[in-house]
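Consider a protein example.
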Amino acid sequence: MSNINFEYANMDYLQDLSGGNTQLIKEILQLFIKQTPPDIALLASYLEQGDWEKAYKQAHHIKPTLAYVGANGIRAELQEIETLAKNRQDLNQLPAKLNTITPKLEILYEELSAYLQTLD
């Protein structure tokens, strides 16, 4: 187990899910780090375009991946974006809400990358 001090990630769920299979953990984390940024960028573009249907579906698509890495606080913030977009509420606040998540995701990617280094 690593001695990384996580701010946003929690590896407990992924450890349990994988049965401690280091190779599987690496694959999941690498996929998360590779795929989540373009998914978030797509969500941002839907919010900018005012395409609330696609925005809420994209937020819904991203949410489960955050659970894998134990980023439940960020997941909850994304849930709020999903709910507001789906219900067409407070739509003018959605880009700002996403902007508060983005720096947290950057830290999360750094945490996961550092954790990956301990798995070699």
Observations:
- The first helix runs from residue 12 to 18.
- The domain at 12-118 is CATH 1.20.120 (Four Helix Bundle (Hemerythrin (Met), subunit A)).
